[in-house]
C-alpha cells in the first residue's frame, strides 16, 4: 500500500482555488467590465463552468485523498472510526467555525435564521437548505464535504470496491428519496456526489497491486514516451471538455432559455431532466480533471528533467497547504482589504485603474492562510501533547 502524496493532486487543489478567486469572486466583486466584455457562452464557460470544475475538483481530491491514505481504509473498528472522525473534525471544523463567525460580521449574514445558523455550525446546512434558502456563500461546500465524509465511512466499511460502487448508488437514491418526499437536500449535493465517488475509485486503482505492477513496467519505457502519453491525454481531455461545454450550453439555452443552473432549477425540471443536467455537468468536470491532471503530469515530468522531484513536491505541497484557509477566508480578507483601502486611503477599489491592487493582494491571502493553518496546527499539537502528558501522570 502506498501513502505517497501526488503533486498533481495538490496542484489541482491550487488551480481550483485560483479559479474561485481569480475567475469567479474577484471579477464579480471588483471587475464587472470583465464579464461585460464577454459573450454569453464565454460567461457560461468562465463563471458557471468555472464553479462546476473548481468545486468538482475539490470533491474529487477529497475522495482521492481519503482513500489514498492507508489509515483511512478498512475502518472496521470503533477505534479506527473514532480516529478517522477525530482527524476529519480537527481538520475541518475549528477553522470552519471561525469562518462562519467572520461571515456573520463581514459578509452580511448577521440576520440569518438562528436555527439555520445552527445547522451551518453542524455542517448540515445542505440537508435543510431547501427549507431556509441558499446556504452561506463559499462555505456551503464544507456542508457537502462533511456529508461526503460520513458517506465515506459507510462505504469504507464494505471493504471491496465492488461493493462500494453499488452501495454509493443506493445511498444516492436515499438522498433522492429525502429530496422528493421531504423536500430536503440542496441540489449541489447531487451535483458533486459521483465526482467524490470517482475520486475514491481512482485512488483505489492507483493503490492497487495491478497498477503498481504497471508502474514497474513503465520504468522500461523511454522518457519521451512517458512524456507523450500524458500530453496526448491532456489534448484529448481538452477537446472533450470544449465539446461538452459547447453542447451543454446549447442544450441549456435551447431547452430552458438560460444557461444558469439555479435559474434552470426554478423551472422545476422533472427527475429525468434534472438527472440529465447533472450528468452533463459531471462529464464536464471529469473531462476537466483528466485534462488538468494529465497536463500537470506532463509538466512535472518535464520539470523533473531539470529540478529534483523532492524540490518540486515541497514547493507545491507548501502552497497546497494553504488552500483550505484561502477557500474559507478569501472573501473576508478581500473585504477587510477593500475597507481599509477605501476608508483609510480613500482609494475606490472598484475603479478599473485600481483593479491591479486586488490582484497584488491575492498572494498575501495565501500567505495569511498559510500562517493561520500553521498556527492552528501548532496550537493543536501543543494541546495534544499537553493532554498526553496529563494522561501519563494519571496512570
Sum this structure up briefly.
By secondary structure, the chain is mostly helical. It is built from 16 helices and no strands.
Structural class: mainly alpha
Unreliable runs, pLDDT <50, ≥5 residues?
none
Q: Give the number of DSSP strands.
A: 0
Order of helices and strands: HHHHHHHHHHHHHHHH
**What portion of residues belong to β-strands?**
under 5%
Mean pLDDT: 89
Net shape: globular
Number of helices: 16
Helix content: over 70%
Description:
The protein is mainly alpha-helical and 395 residues long. 81% of the residues lie in helices and 0% in strands. It has 16 helices and no strands. It has helices at 7-30, 32-36, 40-68, 78-106, 114-122, 125-132, 140-156, 161-182, 187-206, 209-218, 223-256, 261-265, 271-303, 309-321, 323-344, 355-394. The longest helix has 40 residues, at 355-394.
List strands and helices in order, with pairings.
Blueprint lengths: L6 H24 L1 H5 L3 H29 L9 H29 L7 H9 L2 H8 L7 H17 L4 H22 L4 H20 L2 H10 L4 H34 L4 H5 L5 H33 L5 H13 L1 H22 L10 H40 L1
Helix pairs in contact: 1-3, 1-13, 1-14, 1-15, 1-16, 3-7, 3-9, 3-13, 4-7, 4-15, 5-6, 8-9, 9-13, 11-13, 15-16
Highlighted features:
395 residues
Amino acid at each position: 500500500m502506498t501513502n505517497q502524496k501526488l503533486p498533481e493532486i495538490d496542484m489541482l487543489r491550487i488551480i481550483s482555488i485560483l479559479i474561485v478567486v481569480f475567475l469567479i469572486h474577484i471579477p464579480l466583486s471588483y471587475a464587472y467590465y470583465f464579464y461585460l466584455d464577454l459573450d454569453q457562452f464565454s460567461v457560461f464557460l468562465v463563471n458557471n463552468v468555472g464553479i462546476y470544475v473548481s468545486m468538482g475538483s475539490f470533491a474529487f481530491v477529497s475522495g482521492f485523498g481519503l482513500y489514498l491514505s492507508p489509515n483511512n481504509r478498512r475502518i472496521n473498528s470503533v477505534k479506527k472510526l473514532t480516529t478517522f472522525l477525530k482527524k476529519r473534525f480537527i481538520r475541518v471544523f475549528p477553522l470552519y467555525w471561525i469562518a462562519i463567525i467572520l461571515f456573520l460580521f463581514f459578509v452580511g449574514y448577521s440576520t440569518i435564521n438562528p436555527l439555520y445558523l445552527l445547522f451551518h455550525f453542524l455542517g448540515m446546512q445542505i440537508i435543510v437548505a431547501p427549507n431556509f434558502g441558499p446556504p452561506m456563500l463559499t462555505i456551503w461546500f464544507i456542508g457537502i464535504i462533511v456529508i461526503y465524509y460520513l458517506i465515506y465511512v459507510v462505504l469504507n466499511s464494505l471493504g471491496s470496491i465492488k461493493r462500494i460502487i453499488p452501495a454509493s448508488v443506493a445511498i444516492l437514491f436515499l438522498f433522492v428519496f429525502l429530496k422528493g418526499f421531504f423536500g430536503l437536500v440542496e441540489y449541489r449535493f447531487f451535483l458533486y456526489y459521483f465526482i467524490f465517488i470517482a475520486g475514491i475509485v481512482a485512488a483505489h486503482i492507483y493503490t492497487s497491486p495491478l497498477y503498481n505492477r504497471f508502474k514497474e513496467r513503465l520504468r522500461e519505457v523511454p522518457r519521451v514516451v512517458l512524456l507523450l502519453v500524458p500530453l496526448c491525454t491532456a489534448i484529448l481531455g481538452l477537446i472533450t471538455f470544449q465539446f461538452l461545454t459547447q453542447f451543454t450550453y446549447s442544450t441549456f439555452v435551447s431547452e430552458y432559455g438560460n444557461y444558469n443552473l439555479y435559474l434552470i432549477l426554478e423551472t422545476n425540471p422533472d427527475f429525468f431532466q434534472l438527472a440529465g443536467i447533472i450528468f452533463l455537468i459531471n462529464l464536464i468536470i471529469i473531462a476537466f480533471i483528466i485534462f488538468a491532471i494529465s497536463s500537470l503530469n506532463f509538466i512535472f515530468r518535464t520539470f523533473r528533467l531539470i529540478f529534483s522531484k523532492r524540490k518540486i513536491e515541497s514547493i507545491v505541497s507548501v502552497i497546497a497547504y494553504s488552500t483550505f484557509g484561502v477557500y474559507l477566508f478569501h472573501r473576508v480578507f478581500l473585504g477587510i482589504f477593500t475597507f481599509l483601502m477605501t476608508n483609510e486611503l480613500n482609494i475606490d477599489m472598484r475603479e478599473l485603474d485600481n483593479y491591479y491592487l486586488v490582484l497584488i493582494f491575492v498572494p498575501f491571502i495565501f500567505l495569511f492562510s498559510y500562517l493561520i493553518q500553521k498556527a492552528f496546527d501548532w496550537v493543536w499539537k501543543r494541546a495534544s501533547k499537553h493532554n498526553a502528558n496529563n494522561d501519563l501522570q494519571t496512570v
